[in-house]
Design brief:
By secondary structure, the chain is mainly beta. The chain has 1 helix and 26 strands.
Length: 544
């Protein structure tokens, strides 16, 4: 109240001065009674304020009247330009929530709110949901009024056998089978009218029981495809099989190996498998006891079931040296106390073919079947180990030396309706260790090579394109060597290791085309100064 009275007094003073002919203009020689501290105008202000700061001394005191909220969306306070504001609860996804732009939920915002049947985010009436968020009516749905028929543009009409909904249309393409787009009465709007104005029976173009009519199982979303209807099971084929508006729901994920290395093993289920752009799908190496595939927990082998498999030209599936659980182990050799445990080089592992034998030591046995869908991993080659040397024995100084056998190839199976291989699938065994490759020079005998692994392609249509290769070959045996004791005397003379037997490749399908390479060769058996290992046997390749 004090400030308002002061302002009134100032106006009276000004009026009085005016009558006296006093001039308080811009002449600097004359005092400015309205400037400076304590004046109505704020300090340093060029002139009188108008509006919010008129009675505020330069904003150093309270304004007359309430402060104005400029409104910040999301602060929980409804500003002058906002329809709502629930702060952190604002959402563009939750039904009936204040939207993130602080507008109220409404038809056309893409969220089905209370009182809406549908909301596709637009006001187009011809896309299944109209501008009032009501869905398109199914033709020949019984009704009492237009309100029973979904969209505002749909109509409840009387036909020969009752009253039914007829969806609005523009052309024949808007109408389901068994109906035609025409005026439902002279001068009326176009609608999908059932043939002969009768909804009795079932108009079913594809014969699956779903279509238009009271005797149908219900409306059909695709009346030209008998395997697609609301009663069908959804399968992984990029189609909406069960007419719920979703494609392939519940299907397994895709496996796309794009320019990276992905390691897997065991049985796997995917929708689509593709290896491309230099990507490598690697089989996890066998982790169990050699020769006992059950101890590896599924490692060493990858068995994939999918809808479609494609190995692009620059894609690789690698199971080289991933096996070892195969039961065709190559025999070990060794030396203990001056007595040869087995006076021969280690043997190669077997699989599709027998491993190469050392001199007097049989190679690993072949196992597995030729043409069935089963799959096996390769076997390890035998190793050579000097356990102890006898007194004065030339091999005594080699005690503890080991020449490792090669590792069997792993196994890979792809089972899908459609398989295309344009790149590489490899399941080769690795080479046995040469005598000069041990911890120190002079291990003497070379190790046996690992056998080739297994590859199975099983599908309705299988294509192995030109330029591609499937290989399951055995590894080479290690070369034998000679050790001359530094102090002289007899030399310790070694044997060559046997090569690994070839693996197994099976290409099974209703339609099979092979223009690429299928190879299951045996590994080369090695030589040694004392004896050479015997040749290994090739694996098997079966195409049907």
């Amino acid at each position: 109240m004090r400030r308002i009275v002061l302002f009134g007094f100032a106006l009276v003073l000004l009026a009085g001065c005016s009558r006296l002919g006093l001039d308080f203009g811009d002449d600097p020689s004359k005092p400015d009674l309205l400037a400076g501290p304590g004046s109505i105008d704020g300090p340093g202000d060029a002139g009188g304020d108008v509006g919010a700061d008129a009675f505020d001394g330069g904003d150093d005191g309270g304004d007359i009247g309430p402060d104005v909220d400029t409104g910040v969306c999301g602060d929980g306070e409804v500003g002058p330009t906002e329809e709502c504001d629930d702060g952190p609860d604002n959402s563009d996804e939750d039904p009936d929530a204040c939207r993130t732009d602080c507008t109220a939920p409404r038809c056309g915002d893409g969220v089905v709110d209370d009182g809406e049947i549908c909301d596709d985010g637009n006001g187009t009436p011809w896309d299944g949901c109209d501008a009032t968020c009501r869905a398109t009516a199914d033709a020949c749905t019984e009704c009492a009024t237009d309100a029973d028929c979904g969209r505002q543009i749909d109509t409840c009409v009387t036909l020969v056998d009752g009253t039914f909904c007829v969806p609005a249309c523009r052309t024949e393409a808007d109408c389901p089978g068994g109906t035609t787009c025409r005026a439902w009465r002279p001068g009326g709007d176009l609608a999908c009218i059932p043939l002969e104005n009768v909804c009795a029976g079932c108009f079913d173009e594809d014969g699956d029981g779903w279509g238009v009519g009271v005797e149908c199982l219900g409306p059909d979303c695709r009346d030209d495809a008998p395997l697609i209807n609301p009663g069908a099971d959804e399968i992984c084929d990029d189609l909406d099989n069960d007419c719920d508006g979703l494609n392939d729901e519940g299907c397994p994920p895709d496996l796309i190996v794009d320019g990276e290395t992905v390691e897997l093993s065991g049985e796997q289920l995917f929708d689509r498998v593709e290896v491309r752009n230099g990507g490598v799908l690697r089989v996890e190496r066998f982790s169990g006891d050699p020769g006992d595939v059950t101890s590896g927990g599924g490692t060493g082998c990858l068995d994939i079931t999918a809808r479609v498999v494609r190995i692009r030209p620059d894609g690789t599936v690698n199971a080289n040296g991933a096996g070892g659980g195969g039961r065709g182990l190559g025999a070990d050799a060794g030396w203990d106390g001056g007595i040869s445990l087995v006076n021969t080089g280690p043997a190669g592992g077997g699989h599709g073919g027998r491993g190469g034998a050392g001199d007097g030591l049989p190679g690993g046995a072949a196992f597995g079947n030729l043409d069935g869908p089963e799959i096996d991993q390769g076997s390890n080659g035998g190793s050579f180990r000097i356990v102890a040397g006898g007194l004065g024995d030339a091999c005594a100084e080699l005690q503890g030396r080991v020449s490792q056998g090669g590792i069997g190839g792993g196994c890979v199976a792809f089972r899908a309706p459609r398989i295309i291989v344009e790149g590489q699938i490899r399941a080769d065994g690795t080479n046995g260790q040469n005598s000069t490759e041990g911890p120190r020079l002079g291990v003497v005998d070379g190790g046996g090579g690992g056998s080739g692994g297994g590859i199975v392609l099983e599908g309705r249509t299988v294509e192995v394109a030109a330029g591609s290769a499937l290989t399951a070959s055995g590894g080479a045996g290690g070369r034998g060597g000679t050790f001359d004791p530094p102090g002289g005397g007899d030399s310790c003379i070694g044997n060559g290791g046997g090569g690994g037997g070839g693996g197994r490749i099976k290409v099974l399908g209703d339609t099979v085309r092979v223009d690429g390479i299928l190879r299951a060769n045996p590994g080369t058996s090695a030589t040694g100064p004392q004896s050479n290992a015997r040749p290994a046997s090739p694996g098997t390749v079966f195409v049907e």
